[in-house]
Amino acid sequence: MHPDATYLARQYYTALDHHGYDMLRNLLEPGFVQHRGDMTLSGREEFVSFMRDDRPRKDTRHVIDRYIQSKSDDEIVVRGHLEDRDGDELFVFLDRFRARDGKLSELKTFVKSSTAN
């Protein structure tokens, strides 16, 4: 039995927040794709490389407000916000993950600037 999308999403945020790029790679299908407002990252290696080397801020923490699991266990929507190392909110996000065969296959990310900034 494969892990459901909720488990995979939790592991995804743990990997990002702790700079566990090998762990992140193991969570993603080779054909993983992320769609977001400013870019699309196609392929597991491109995504992991971006998160490891090119994302603007790495000293952050994802704070999750809610996980909404689909009935089929292959899709989850996650609402939360990203904090800097001082605990200041940078922005609110909504992530929709799709999973297949125990791996994350797709991520659609929506962000809204924090009203605190």
Question: What does the secondary structure layout of this molecule look like, with pairings?
Answer:
Blueprint: H1 5-17, H2 21-27, E1 28-36, E2 39-42, H3 44-54, E3 60-69, E4 75-84, E5 89-100, E6 103-113
Parallel strand pairs: 1-6
Antiparallel strand pairs: 1-2, 3-4, 4-5, 5-6
Helix pairs in contact: 1-2
CATH secondary-structure class: Alpha Beta
* Global Rg: 14 Å
**Strands of the biggest beta sheet: in what spatial order?**
2-1-6-5-4-3
The percentage of residues in β strands lies in over 45%
Major sheet summary line: 6 strands, mixed
Within the CATH hierarchy, at the fold level, what is the topology? Nuclear Transport Factor 2, Chain: A
Number of domains: 1
Average of pLDDT = 93
Helix content: 25-40%
Low-confidence stretches: none
Which of globular, elongated, flat, extended, rod-shaped describes the shape?
globular
